[in-house]
Amino acid sequence: MSTKWWKDSIGYQIYIRSFKDSNNDGIGDIKGITNKLDYLHFLGINLIWICPFYKSPMDDNGYDVSDFFSVSEDYGTLEDMKELLNEAHKRGIKVIIDLILNQTSDEHWWFKEAKKSKNNPYHDYYIWKDPRYINVDGKRIRKEPTNWASFFGGSCWEYVEEVDQYYMKIFSKKMPDLNYENSRVIDEFVKIIDFWCSFGVDGFRLDAIAHLAKSEFRDSLIEADGEYKPDWSKFSNLDKVHTYLKEFNRRVFSKYDLLLVGEVGGNATVKDALLYTLPSRRELNMVFNFDHNWCNNKWEKAPDEKMRIKVLDLKKIFNKWETGLQGARSWNALYWLNHDQPRVASHYADMQYFEKSTKVLALVLYFMWGTPFIYNGEEIGMTNPTFKSIDDFKDVSVKNCYQIEVVENKKDSKKFIEDVSYSTRDNARTIMQWDDSENGGFSICKPWNIICDNYKEINVEREMYDKKSLLNFYRKIIKIRLESEYKNIIRDGIYEQIESEDENLYIYIRKLKIQSKKNNTLIVIGNLTDKVVDFKIDSILTNIDLNNTKIVLSNYDRRAIPEQLKEYEGIVLATRL
Ligand code: GLC
Ligand code: CA
């Protein structure tokens, strides 16, 4: 059996709007990406995932699509996309794109038709329910069909006068959910997927895929403040999603050699993930889970306390996913962040040991089993920005909450900004820091979004020429994963955590079961704290032959195996076990 190409891939996610502006209108675009392919080649990655570039009113920066067959004017043309694919392929870089199946924009012509009347042939493309009416003080009051909340604030229902019904929208009101009970919706997407596959893309990141099926429309009974209940179980990872995915596979995906990676949301378990990714089920190749995204003391720490990783929690989570998926012969996707999370440098790294801690984070994650996805800017250590006013936020979900909390419920606006700054998705969406010129080399015009104040120190150009930079450390990891004698160990080796109760060190081995004289094992060790920790590898692994153990990577430039690990020290050893 030949190995699937995506098992040897290192992905790089591009938030197109913030990546590189080629025509100086302040908005990142497709040609901007093409112009930066040489940089990506230099970084060494061989796969890019491009966030949505389709025609869209940009309520949610393109996740609200109004035409799946064309490119947004903000980003270029279909020809530009063709050129990008050709140029990427020339450099050995595969390209996957976002496939947004859960919803369309309310400006998509299907929805414009759908809301005209209940008899319109497109009405059933979306999820409509009649209002409920209750009596309050003798008055008849119209209510939503259920008490379910939306991810972006408020109810997940929106009323349309013309048809006297509510449509479902689990994100923003400009993003009506599609109705997969209607087989015509599937027919439409088979055509759309086929179009992009024939166009030449190498696969898809399936956006919000967990939410395609909805449960019966009954009120949630969970206890939570507020009128609308954040009961995501009502529309996450339900059985029917698998039926739809199997149909897509049968009708279109299986005709091409694709990488399919699904976003499966917060409540997905390893068991759920296996349902999506077991090869025998013919659904997806891998999924992004969210388990490791909030593993620090941020929400508990005293004001003068330092931000810290909860080391034991983080280890437990990674361990669960690695062993759970590997044991079942499925596949994992490895990532620190995407466009919906804070920057890992601000989230898990330590500002006092910035260089060492950002490096050790990369080291512990990217020697694991699975396909890595680096988020643009992560490789140079981009951080969260400082939000100074409400205008610095661009995310529709922040704007919705601002409207509800500050405008309607009179919360103090400063306090609001303080509260959302840390968790907002806008943290990951500031413009890419290419160099120290104005606007960080992103554009010569005023960019659509803010740039972090630190761009003069943290930028691609500076780090390219600095041998000790984070960027060059990422390049080393990528090279080891793809080109070194250890590449098979990294791709196929069994993952096993050791010293799982250690509160400072994350140690795991990757071991290939082969009978040869060559090294068959990598030992990955990361000190995830600012403590100096005593450590003797031969007392942990008593059968190790230290004379035949080599250092593969070290963020302290070690020449000999240390007996003490410094603050945020990380080291990878190769040996035979
Ligand atoms: C996914 C995307 C997010 C988007 C949402 C709706 O979670 O990652 O950015 O807002 O789906 O499409
Ligand atoms: Ca542009």
Description:
This protein is an alpha/beta fold. It folds into three domains: 9-103 and 183-377 and 455-471, Glycosidases (TIM Barrel); 109-168, Oligo-1,6-glucosidase, domain 2 (Alpha-Beta Complex), CATH 3.90.400.10; 493-575, Immunoglobulin-like. 28% of the residues lie in helices and 17% in strands. It contains 17 helices and 22 strands. The protein has an eight-stranded parallel β-sheet with strand order 13-12-11-5-2-1-15-14. A five-stranded antiparallel β-sheet has the order 16-17-18-22-20. It is globular. Residues 21-23, 25, 27, 29 line the site of calcium ion.
Q: What features would you highlight for this structure?
A:
22 strands, globular, Immunoglobulin-like, 8-stranded parallel sheet, TIM Barrel, 5-stranded antiparallel sheet, 17% strand, binds alpha-D-glucopyranose, Oligo-1,6-glucosidase, domain 2, 17 helices
